[in-house]
From TrEMBL:
This protein's name: NAD-dependent epimerase/dehydratase family protein
UniProt xrefs under SUPFAM superfamilies: NAD(P)-binding Rossmann-fold domains (SSF51735)
UniProt keywords, alphabetically: Oxidoreductase
Residue ranges annotated for the NAD-dependent epimerase/dehydratase domain, each copy included: 11-248
InterPro entries for this protein: Epimerase_deHydtase, NAD(P)-bd_dom_sf, NAD(P)_dehydrat-like
Highest taxon in the source lineage: Bacteria
A Pfam family that the UniProt record links to this protein: Epimerase
Amino acid sequence: MMTNIDKTKPVLVTGATGYVAGWLVKRLLEDGMTVHAAVRDPEKEHKVHHLNGIAEKSPGVIKYFKSDLLEDGSYAEAMEGCELVFHTASPFTSEYDDPQKELIEPAVKGTANVLNQAKKTSGVKRVVVTSSCAAIYTDAKDVQDAPNNILTEDIWNTTASLEYQPYSYSKTLAEKQAWQISEEQSEWDLVTINPSLVMGPPLNPGATTSESFSLLKQLGDGTFKMGAPKLGIGLVDVRDVAEAHYQAGFTPSAQGRYITSAHNTNFVELGEALEPKYGDSYPVPTKSMPKWLLLLVGPFVNKNLSRKFIRNNVNVEWQADNSKIKKDLNINFRPMRETMEDSFQVLIDNKII
């Protein structure tokens, strides 16, 4: 199915103040488009000032709409007249008391809310949902159980639960919900972007709550000076993820899920990427902490470092196949060192580190 989007019509971006969303909004505005930015609190100047600054310098126009993921019908006004909807809004945190209430419900209900609204809004042709590689796997160990030891778009996460890695569970349930709603109608097609760990410079450093920034901070503040856990992960630049969304929206033949991951890597390699430029001034880790030691101290250092998690991820290689997005959407990923240096520099410039 070929879907052509009319660029003279407005485009909806939910969660427009988010980390990835900011770069996507920038790309759309620079392309001269009208962006309907759905945000929880358009009145909060510190949340939107960076977007206003971009809009002032761009040929495009931004319009704000107050919306709430959990409120039925709260995206109706924002979606009016849009052929293309980007649903990026979703909770991403490891700080929660009640995973059902703080992770699962907002992710699943929010997705249902936005996509059910798309069913009711005439003229919508394509919905691009920000999912995650977390909807494909929970632990690096899952890669070993995948065909040829490599994650592909055909694989779904079957190992996360409310008790273990509820964030991954929330992303899995939300994306499944999206595909289910998509299959109930034929007006629009659904494309999902499934990024691995997203790094890169935020457009609004002061208000960035992204989980990747707490990790980045630990790479520079001495947390890992004895060595980093050699945790197998995928890494991708926030600017490349935004471009992937843009191309998923405007490439007529785009379809299905897209693993959006540039590098098969681990925490130690992230430290090594920072070492040449920052190693003299900051305690960036270049060696790995032994697994036995992590099993001993991990659970005390960080509640997310359970022994099960350490066993399933430390010294385990992570691999994903990103050939589909390169071929279909023509995405060229940035080198890892550029991503890491640009991210780290923002922390320094903003005295976060």
